[in-house]
Amino acid sequence: MKKSLLFILCAVFAFSLASCSKTSPEAEAKKIATDTLSLFDTATAKLDKAQSAKEAADALTAYAADMKVIQDRTNEFQKKNPGFSASTANTDKELQKKAEASAAAFTSAMTKAMMKYAGSKEMLDAVMKISEMAPKK
Q1: Angle CA 130–60–52, to nearest 5
Q2: Does the predicted TM-score (pTM) go above 0.85?
Q3: Average pLDDT, the chain
């Protein structure tokens, strides 16, 4: 579960890069943030609708795979824009509020699913897959 929370932190970082400016780095950062927001919302909906351990596990595994793609994009963005910082740009306050709400809803849905299906083979397999996808340090 700690590894999956790492993905959440990565998403929050991607969001922190968001800005409403139309210049290239800001626009790219905003796109990463909105994609992350969409991912949270999609995963939350799937987890809330899950009627079995398999459905919940599939939702978490899909979330982790998609988050890995976003993390790779974030890493590339950082390499291309090493001096870029959201603190030096105009932060999109509306997007920030939406991201915080989406992240909170996702965390709640994930926690409920993990508790509801704790110990199931499907959920244990999903946690293992998520661990394998997590960035290695």
Answers
A1: 125
A2: no
A3: 82
